[in-house]
């Protein structure tokens, strides 16, 4: 094999290694990011919805009952395909709508959570058990 051929193979191996490392770092463990013992219930107004892979997110403004201060929380959920298969569609979440969500709080104390159960005030979006749909998994 010529030197050019060996260099080309080494370049491909290097690119593959970089790509594989990026993929591995891009996906995270629930336990590494979220505290399975720190379940919070948040009620707020949806400010943004990101229906993207690898996980869907929505953001809600939550008002502190004691101080009146408003904080914006980021709530991570299942991948969009999983949400769709479980009956949760993109149009279920509308900016400006008030919802309640249970979520496991981020370990780093930031205003992020791994969402679990969304409760809608509009029960026409759900079937079966009242007004709830699952945005993410049970604690792991």
At CATH level 3, the topology is: OB fold (Dihydrolipoamide Acetyltransferase, E2P)
Amount of helix? 10-25%
The number of helices is: 3
How many beta strands in the DSSP annotation?
Answer: 6
Characterize the main sheet.
5 strands, mixed, barrel
* Mean pLDDT, all residues: 80
- Please state the second-level CATH architecture: Beta Barrel
- N-to-C span: 51 Å
Content-based structural category: alpha+beta
Low-confidence stretches: 19-26
Give a quick set of tags describing it:
single chain, OB fold (Dihydrolipoamide Acetyltransferase, E2P), 140 residues, alpha+beta
Brief overview, please?
By secondary structure, the protein is of the alpha+beta class.
What does this entry look like structurally?
- This protein has a single domain, classed as OB fold (Dihydrolipoamide Acetyltransferase, E2P) (Beta Barrel).
- The chain contains three helices and six strands; from the N terminus they run ααβββαβββ.
- The radius of gyration is 20 Å and the shape is elongated.
- The chain starts with a helix and ends in a 6-residue tail after the last strand.
- About 5% of the residues have low confidence.
SSE layout:
Elements: H1 3-26, H2 30-33, E1 34-50, E2 57-63, E3 70-76, H3 80-85, E4 98-106, E5 112-120, E6 132-134
Parallel strand pairs: 3-5
Antiparallel strand pairs: 1-2, 1-4, 2-3, 4-5, 5-6
